[in-house]
Amino acid sequence: MADVDVTPNEITYSAAISACEKGQWQVATPLLSSMTEMRLRPNKLSFSSAIRACERGHQWQLALKLLSDMFQSSLPADEVTYSAAIGACEKGGQQVIVLSLLNTMLEVALGQMAPTTVSIHGCEPIAVYFAT
Fold first, then answer.
1. Could you give the C-alpha distances from 94 to 11, 35, 100, 123, 124, in angstroms and in order?
2. What is the pLDDT of residue 113?
3. What keywords were assigned to this record (predicted)?
4. CB count, 10 Å around CB of 128?
């Protein structure tokens, strides 16, 4: 069989990162970093998939860093991206950050009902604190 020289592009990287969404953040984040090393611009799908991998891997700090990197790349976050970041922070017990992200999301008029469920669960410890 002949050797074929295939150079990865934004689509192949995004697909690989998306395959890591089940919590393989240790694979997803280096793939995202290598995109810029290859002079490829990560897109919204690349970032969202990596953030989702961080959420499922309980890596809230890394999820927030990737969200910040996404904003610095002038890419707008959508409800999927915010929901993943909110979910990561909720799993990490970061209710204040959950509320902040929810507020930011609502300010840019992204949210309908989907992220509200995540946020309500994330706010439960705050409600218990104020109720006692």
1. 33, 30, 10, 9, 11
2. 44
3. Repeat
4. 9
